[in-house]
């Protein structure tokens, strides 16, 4: 790829010309084609995603120094958020140039690095708001003690950004330190820039180019050169290192030997437990065009058990070569890209097992013909994973010969070129991840609307995580005298998000007053009723509880209806077709009335709770309707389950030794039912934890709808082994006129929580300044 030689504009000793062929991959979908005015756009850094919006950078474009852009997932709404200014004398400017890494989204701000420019010509750390306002240079590298040429992405913790600079131009000749690169930190406001560690000795490593990963107070990263070798050896092949955030205890975890282990790692690492996963761009046992092709590797954080999980070898069918991407870990599979190799030599998307098995080529890019093809070529950036789909960018090919944005399912099907970059002015690139918390936006429902005028039938709303931008996306229509309407009412079953579409259930209303399944776009457009429950014959009634979304299929439950009137489990396609009853709960002494499901692979797990008797159970069912099994009797089970490995965690709204509810765990086989905690109302521990649980690491978080010091509910945490039960927040006492429940924070948090970073978000059914409930956040 001849245009990579232009990267040699950076005059430094780290042989940029040989390493410039890396970039960090992202999810496979062609979302947009970058546009370059004076040179090619080159979206090396890939994209990040927030809801239906992608954010990214192009190394070229604009006036030739690069841009920051955003674009919608359907390819519309392309906007240049910042255009880096032209170079002055000595390659300097005020804001930076040539952004090479992916962006970091925190709150409503994007943070990134520019590998060149700035007032000293050594690059910058910058910040810009997602609407393009508020651009600021947080730090300008001088090429001295602070390093220069930052080429890796940033990470953030506690309002502090951490990153690496790859080096300076004069080797170790000036005695200024930092000439082989640095690890640095700087506040998100631009204050407190500190060089945490300076690479001064090739034995430590040199030229860190990837992003860092933080665990506790320790940072882990890779260096492209260096290692435990004599300085006279001309080729040193890189290291894996660790250092504390305070700059102490620098450790070379592993030094690459350039044999079966690989060499010259450019990408960041992925940490799972005590194991680091990464890629090398060269060496290993495989080849591509007579050049070594690189590896996928794992190593313990203490340096033990180094394993080459895969040797890239393009002489094998469809295998790739030369990976410059940070991996994505999902379960026991790692996903990434190679810039070259594959059937057509244009690069691949791959999956590799964490034990060294299950390697496969997910997608091989097609051959270039006069610089163009249908799907793109040479994916330098890594991928992002969302709901079984990988998204990323390719820096060449596509119909405009300037690269693409693409998506592909993890099984290799459904490849889509979302955007073809073409020549012209500016550049583009979208990226992000998708959930009910999507980026900085939450999506939720209210059961009523009595405080806001109009029908008291409920709404779908969105709100930013800083409390701004509250928007009502849909107001359910007023009920007729027979409790029917056109769209449903009381949407209390939760939402699921796929792309830019929200799916949910309304437990009342509809044409038969039995509830509906609906969809609505995240901008409030496109509301449609997918299905109206009939409550006649074997139809369902009251779809209350969480739904599960897998591909184009929705799974859920109704409390009543079905063959015996005791509720059912159903499936339906997202276009409203293919409605099927998977299981009708029988009559008799069993526990009827299911209250939502979760999905793991092809198995649904849920709870039942007979409102009249309190009988309850945990059950499982295949997505094909086969294999129903009651795993265990759990009286007063409520809320959705949480699955981790082979263990289910849940809550009961009542029961336990004190009668106020419990937290429990059990195996997915139904064995080892364990009461982790019994709520003690007399000690202010809360009562009625009906909202389900949230798991983060080894800690469960939840709410109780009552109890606590003011009997208005609590937010709590507890270890998965039942230890360290902690009340994180007691909802405050009420004030105001009689029969009005006003307070500052809300009352009766009956729904579950959402976690973003280190912050928990939730809703309270009542209270607040107007007595109609709140959305809240809390940092444990």
Description:
The structure is a single chain. The chain is an all-beta fold and 780 residues long. The protein has one helix and 62 strands. A five-stranded mixed beta sheet has the order 4-3-2-1-33, with no helix packed on it. Strands 5-6-7-8 form a four-stranded antiparallel beta sheet, with no helix packed on it. Strands 9-10-11-12 form a four-stranded antiparallel beta sheet, with no helix packed on it. Strand 11 and strand 12 (194-198) form a beta hairpin. The radius of gyration is 27 Å and the shape is globular.
Biggest beta sheet summary? 5 strands, mixed
Assembly type of the chains comes to single chain
Please bin the fraction of helical residues: under 10%
Strand content: 35-45%
Total E-strand runs = 62
Shape: globular
In short:
This protein is an all-beta fold and 780 residues long. The protein contains one helix and 62 strands.
Strands, helices and their partners?
Blueprint: H1 16-19, E1 47-50, E2 53-58, E3 67-72, E4 79-83, E5 104-106, E6 109-114, E7 124-129, E8 136-140, E9 155-157, E10 160-165, E11 182-187, E12 194-198, E13 213-215, E14 218-223, E15 239-244, E16 251-255, E17 270-272, E18 275-280, E19 287-288, E20 291-292, E21 295-300, E22 307-311, E23 320-321, E24 328-330, E25 333-338, E26 340-341, E27 348-353, E28 360-364, E29 384-386, E30 389-394, E31 404-409, E32 416-420, E33 432-433, E34 437-438, E35 441-446, E36 459-464, E37 471-475, E38 495-498, E39 501-506, E40 516-521, E41 528-532, E42 540-541, E43 548-550, E44 553-558, E45 560-561, E46 568-573, E47 580-584, E48 594-600, E49 603-609, E50 616-622, E51 629-633, E52 637-644, E53 647-652, E54 662-667, E55 674-678, E56 693-696, E57 699-704, E58 714-719, E59 726-730, E60 754-756, E61 759-764, E62 774-778
